[in-house]
TrEMBL record:
This is TMM70 protein. The chain crosses the membrane at residues 40-62, 74-97. GO terms for cellular component: mitochondrial membrane. The gene is Tmem70. InterPro entries: TMEM70, TMEM70/TMEM186/TMEM223.
Length: 186
């Protein structure tokens, strides 16, 4: 019964999370990008968190039933360590890897500012506003970073921009300083 309840709770919570946010936010500007993994990222994080909570509640019960408490200290330490890894390390790692995943990106032409929507540690949407000149491209290709907005790493998929010009402007590729004819002739 308990596992089924946890699973059905996950389903309900995921549905309510995904339907509660219409993407029209005129105050942020026009929507120029929508990440296609947003639901997957949310689902994986949510599953990881609920599993961790489930583990925390089940640990004393398992200890009591299995009689592992009577066994040697080493077995106990190993058991707690293993559960601890799954309970705390996985959600933390997931958060570090996905915190820069841009769910939606809005652009205001008149101010040349972007509003990036990402998920924070508690799965709520987080708003980051930055100017185009705040965008820094990492010198080396980083696995979970397309660009930095001030100091925050952001991850976008260039192929998901309906208008490629929006991506070029975001990255500053349209400033033409990147492509000088003199450089080509050398």
């Amino acid at each position: 019964g308990l596992i089924f309840q946890v699973a059905s709770f996950q389903g309900v919570a995921l549905r309510s999370l995904s339907t509660s946010s219409p993407h029209d936010h005129p105050e942020h500007g026009r929507l120029v990008y929508k990440g296609n993994l947003a639901k997957a990222v949310l689902g994986v994080k949510f599953f990881s968190y609920s599993t961790s909570i489930f583990n925390l509640f089940m640990m004393p019960y398992i200890m009591l039933k299995s009689g592992i408490g009577v066994e040697s200290l080493l077995v106990q330490a190993a058991f707690y360590g293993l559960i601890g890894i799954f309970t705390f390390v996985t959600p933390v790692t997931l958060h570090i890897l996905t915190k820069g995943y841009v769910i939606r990106l809005y652009y205001k032409d008149e101010a040349d500012t972007y509003t990036a929507i990402t998920y924070n540690a508690i799965l709520a949407e987080k708003v980051t506003v930055f100017h185009q000149k705040d965008v820094k491209i990492p010198d080396i290709t980083k696995m979970f970073t397309t660009f930095y907005a001030k100091t925050k790493s952001m991850l976008v998929n260039p192929t998901l921009f309906p208008n490629p010009q929006d991506y070029n402007h975001l990255m500053g590729y349209d400033k033409s300083s990147y492509f000088k004819f003199e450089d080509l002739e050398e």
